[in-house]
Structures are given as C-alpha cells and as structure tokens.
Give the backbone structure.
Amino acid sequence: MALSGPDLSMLLAVLADQAVDVDFTSDIAAGVGLADADLDQFDFAVAVIPAGPREDNAGVSAIYIEIGVAAARELPLLVVVEPPGPPAPALAGLTTVITQMDNEEALRLQLGLFLRWVQAAPRAQRVVQPPASSQHLVPAAYAARLRAARMSPPDQRGMAFEQLVSDLFRDAGAQVEQRPPGDPDLGVDIAAFIPGEEQRLGTLMVQVKSGTLAGHALQDEQQRLSAQVLQARAGLGLLVYDQVTPGARKVPPAPLVFHLGIDDLLAELEARPLSAVLARARNRAVHGM
C-alpha cells in the first residue's frame, strides 16, 4: 500500500532479502475496492504513509482506506510513516514505524521483527500459560560465555558481548532480530518480543555495551535509545552494559529506557521468566525509577 511518489527501492530490497513476494494494491484493488479482494492469499501487508502534506491528499486517503480494510480483515499489517510528525491517531493500535524510506538499518530491524511476529502469530494466539519455574530459565553456561566474552580480543569483544545478549534473549523465549555485523550503530542492537506478550509488553529495543561505561556515556547511550524507542513507539528500551563506574549507577533512566548490568540480568533470569523481568523493568522505567 503506497503512492507512486516515495522511493520504495530500499523497502523492496529488504523484502526481497527476506524472500517475500510483493503485490501492490494498485494491481489488486485500490481504496474501497480492496474490500472485495481476496486477501486470504496474503500473509501480511505493509503500508507506507509518505512525508509531506497529508490532508486533502486523495492518494493518502486511499492508503488509509486500504489500511482500514486490511485491519478489519485481520491481515497482519506494518505501517511505515515517513517523518516529520507523529503518525495519525487513526493508526493507534497498529504496528507503526517512523523512519525515512532510505534508512536501511531501521527497515531491516523493524521488518525483520515484524516478520518474526507474523511467523509466530498462530502460536502466539493460543492461550498463554504462566511458565513453569524451570521454563525458559537461563542455562548456567552463560556465566562461562560471559567470562569468555570479557577475555576476548578488544576488537571482537563488542560483537561477542552483543551475540551473548542476543542468544540469551532467544533462550529466554523471545523472538529476536539482531543488527547485522558491520551495520552502523544508531542506538539499537537488538529488537525483540515475547510470543503471547505482544499486547502487554510491546516491542523491546536493546542496546548492548561492552567494557566500562562512565556516567556521562551511560546517560548519552540511554538518550539515544530513548529517542529510538519513542520514534518507533516501542514498549521499552533496555540498555545492557558490562561494567560501569561507581558514580554511573546513580544515573537516572531516560524516558521508557531501563539500564541493567549483564550480571544483574543473568541473576534476574535465573529467578524469573523474561516476561516478568521486562514487566518489572517497564514499570520502573515508566515511573522514572
């Protein structure tokens, strides 16, 4: 669902890399006509709201109509909104990403996570039972992996630490999309969600930092992550660090961002499931604790 104006080449390239075949609504049925189309043959839809004036724009109005049709037919839907400005209130409740159409990292991260959600949806729609005390608890092997990551060569330590946290969330039951190695660091290394907890917890955005952070560096990283969380309308941002200087522990959290040391995170996950850890972190972040 898109107008002819925006350059969709990056979005189409990302979809192609995910082995997704694309059909445009302009080739199926545009606007209200989409209500009569056979949408059961499609796994999901992506709508693009372009930048620029949106009022009194017939093309944008048609896109909103198509979004409404897809939502009413319960077709999984990702809405990409070009800045500036927040998405329209009419999009409340839909998975929405605010980004430029040439922002490859944001598109790959958000679309990759959305596709994981689509693939997990049949399983996630089942009644979710509270996990047993042993379900999704972190294996003790992560303590050994952490020691190995800390001893790895300096030029490999950051990636080793990031991979450890990514695998940790997977083993704890989350669906994870990780920033590809070599891509620029814009403040988010990992995006994740827990199947069955999408409505309660939303998307989790994670930034991982190895080494030792001073207070000003911790504050700067939190602000970068907070900006990404607010822009993407995610549920929570989590900054996972290895070590911090003594004074840095007093740094207050940024809006919707919570920071946690890797040792503390491992200890939390030994005691309770990831959903409980994140719910607790979100509550503390919302209250500025």
Remarks:
- The CA atoms of residues 186 and 224 lie 8 Å apart.
